[in-house]
Specification:
Elements lengths: L8 H25 L10 H11 L4 E5 L2 E4 H17 L7 E5 L4 H11 L4 E4 L6 H10 L4 E5 L3 H7 L10 E4 L16 E2 H4 L19 E7 L7 E6 H15 L6 E4 L6 H14 L2 E4 L8 H8 L3 E5 H9 L13 E5 L3 H11 L3 E6 L8 E2 L9 E2 L4 E4 L1 E2 L4 E2 L15 E7 L12 H7 E3 L7 E13 L2 E7 L3 E4 L2 E4 H9 L4 E9 L8 E8 L7 H11 L8 E4 L13 H7 L11 E3 L8 E2 L2 H9 L5
Parallel strand pairs: 1-11, 3-4, 3-5, 4-8, 5-6, 6-7, 10-11, 10-12, 12-13, 13-14, 27-28
Antiparallel strand pairs: 1-2, 8-9, 14-15, 16-23, 17-20, 18-19, 20-22, 21-22, 22-23, 24-25, 26-27, 28-29, 29-30
Helix pairs in contact: 1-8, 2-9, 3-4, 5-6, 8-9
Length: 608
């Protein structure tokens, strides 16, 4: 860490005038988000109706050639809400929503939100056993499936607890113009809602902060994905805070290529747009080469990002028109210090509202002062405590209490659980308990363990350092090592698998690597193995590197020695001659990691 990253009083004074201008809006936003009244009316549907009233004919949603103003979009949402009310859905019910980034996804989620139904926002990369688990976990009453994902859904349909007549379909097109024809076994939602009323349902004003809005799936430290509960009140927190900080208005458009099954897009970016009555321009999947062309097409003034997105944009050769756009603000997470300044300079972006938070966590940081190289400021109660990474344990004082890390020192981030910062948690109470730390600084206190190492850089600002435990981050996604280990061990010729994250030069996060042991007397078909893994798990979770071992190194209590494996990584000079394999970009099989390939990886010759 550079000493320049430590924030000094003079730095805050320089930034203060810009922040002071926003204080009235920020105070209102913070008040909206910090209410502890569980019966306060609010949430996603409420926010849409407020924006529609304020800016009925302004841009709401833009996608390809579709442009909807707030009045049109809200009426579409209302028809969905009224239809599902007529089908008997009620507050507290759950509906699985499995649609890629397009207006139909937003309309479905908002329609259900207006009647108090909780949407299970399933990761659209999921397939096989992972998809089955994610859907059955939350016991949905119904499901809405995009045509683009019918194949993945049908592959697991027999394993689901859903009724045969409870599954809806939406064509992969502008369903307001052409509803399409549903495949056998599905109801066509676009045609079903056509005769439903388009006025605001009364239920919007019966949805409270404490009611569930959606489940967001997070790869925890153990097992299959966990469903993190995201309440309307939690969404209002993002709406109020990021809305006031971003300060978008009716003329603004925020361009979002991030998946809307994640909170960064659905709560932060969408919340900021609704707060200002601004528009959201969506894209199905991120494209580095078409990114700025889209920005100009939609006349966007802000963007949502993750660090990997920024790195990919920097890899595209510079063009004279790199600054030919009106984007001056961006909000997201994971911007690496080594490209932060260069990105702002090259593309003319002035304000980077880096944030930190998690779907299940109870605290968050936001870079409201627009400093470089920080996840920002947090007004909520938190602490950064000393942590021994080698022994994977907290450092405690003579009385058994934790010790706070000093300024400039990395430590584990923990969020105090209070009425103002509750821990909503997961669907599984046992998993909730595993995340809660008790008697941290005094008897009776409770903290949420984020599992993340951060550094205190002064004035309640932090800098992200690393992720602890059995989860690593790759391609903007959290990967559960246990989940991948279980799926790999199910492959016929693999006896044991140990999964961990390794750093590749010039990339963000950690790529997956697995040490595997074949069953005695069996050979591994590495092309077939990759084909199998692509069916069973999302692409981002598939290990990039494999290390074949005759026997796993374990501790006296039969725990795998992951630390040694992590240290050695995919270094051909440190892995004791054991066979190494790599899945290179745009290939269909693992191949031996030769000295030449290893050198090229370290030189950045491949784009992982």
């Amino acid at each position: 860490m550079s000493t320049q990253d430590i924030i000094k009083p003079i730095d805050v004074l320089r930034k203060a005038p810009a922040v002071i201008k926003k204080l009235p809006k920020m105070a209102y936003g913070l008040a909206l988000g910090s209410s502890t009244n569980p019966t306060k009316v609010g949430g996603l549907g409420w926010a849409l109706e407020k924006a529609t009233k304020a800016n009925p004919y302004g841009s709401a949603v833009l996608y390809k050639d579709t442009q909807l103003n707030y009045l049109q979009f809200n009426q579409w949402v209302n028809r969905i809400a009224h239809y599902f009310l007529a089908q008997g859905l009620k507050k507290g019910d759950v509906v699985t929503v499995f649609i890629e980034n397009r207006p139909e996804l937003l309309a479905t989620v908002l329609g259900l939100a207006k009647i108090g139904v909780t949407c299970a926002l399933v990761n659209t990369s999921q397939t096989g056993k992972v998809l089955t688990h994610s859907i059955n976990l939350v016991k949905p009453k119904m499901a809405v499936i995009g045509d683009e994902l019918v194949g993945s859904f049908n592959d697991v349909r027999k394993e689901l607890t859903l009724g045969a007549d409870k599954v809806y379909w939406l064509a992969d097109q502008d369903t307001l113009k052409e509803v399409g024809t549903a495949p056998k076994g599905f109801k066509n939602l676009a045609s079903e809602i056509q005769n439903s009323p388009s006025y605001n349902p009364p239920t919007t004003n019966q949805v409270y902060y404490s009611d569930g809005l959606f489940y967001i799936y997070t790869s925890g430290t153990t097992g299959m994905p966990k469903a993190a509960i995201f309440s309307h009140g939690r969404w209002m927190k993002a709406y109020g805070i990021f809305g006031s900080v971003m300060d978008l208005n009716h003329k603004d458009i925020i361009y979002v290529t991030l998946p809307f099954y994640h909170a960064t897009a659905m709560a932060v970016c969408f919340g900021a747009a609704l707060y200002g009555g601004a528009g959201v321009a969506m894209r199905r999947k991120f494209s580095a080469r078409e990114f700025w062309d889209d920005i100009r097409k939609y006349n966007a003034s802000a963007i949502g990002y993750v660090g990997e997105l920024c790195r990919y944009l920097m890899e595209v050769p510079a063009k004279p028109e790199d600054k030919a756009h009106r984007v001056r603000k961006m909000v997201g997470n994971g911007m690496r210090p080594n490209i932060w300044g260069a990105f702002k300079s090259r593309f003319g972006v002035e304000e980077v509202y880096e944030l930190y938070g998690s779907s299940e966590g109870n605290i968050g940081f936001n870079n409201i002062f627009n400093f470089d190289n920080t996840v920002g400021f947090c007004p909520l109660p938190y602490s950064i405590v000393k942590y021994d990474k080698e022994n994977d344990s907290f450092v405690r004082d003579a009385n058994g209490f934790m010790i706070k890390a000093g300024k400039g020192e990395a430590g584990l981030l923990i969020g105090k659980i209070t009425a103002r910062t509750p821990f909503d948690g997961y669907t599984d109470p046992a998993k909730n308990e595993s995340c809660i730390l008790k008697d941290v600084f005094e008897k009776g206190d409770r903290y949420f363990n984020t599992g993340d190492l951060v550094r205190d850089i002064g004035f309640r600002h932090a800098q992200f350092v690393d992720r602890l435990g059995d989860t690593f981050r790759w391609k903007g996604e959290n990967v559960s090592t246990t989940e991948v280990e279980n799926l790999m061990s199910g492959y016929p010729s693999i006896s044991e698998a140990v999964v961990y994250g390794v750093e590749i030069p010039n990339t963000n996060g950690r790529a997956g690597m697995a040490a595997i042991t074949p069953h005695e007397g069996m050979e591994i078909d590495y092309a077939h193995l990759l084909e199998h893994l692509r069916k069973e798990m999302p692409v981002y979770a598939i290990p990039v590197f494999l290390r074949q071992q005759k026997q796993m190194e374990t501790t006296g209590t039969f725990k795998y020695q992951k630390n040694n494996l992590k240290k050695e990584g995919f270094d051909i000079n440190a892995t004791h001659g054991e066979p190494l394999f790599v899945w290179l970009p745009n290939t269909t099989s693992y191949q031996p990691l030769t000295a030449e390939i290893w050198e090229n990886i370290n030189k950045g010759a491949y784009r992982f």
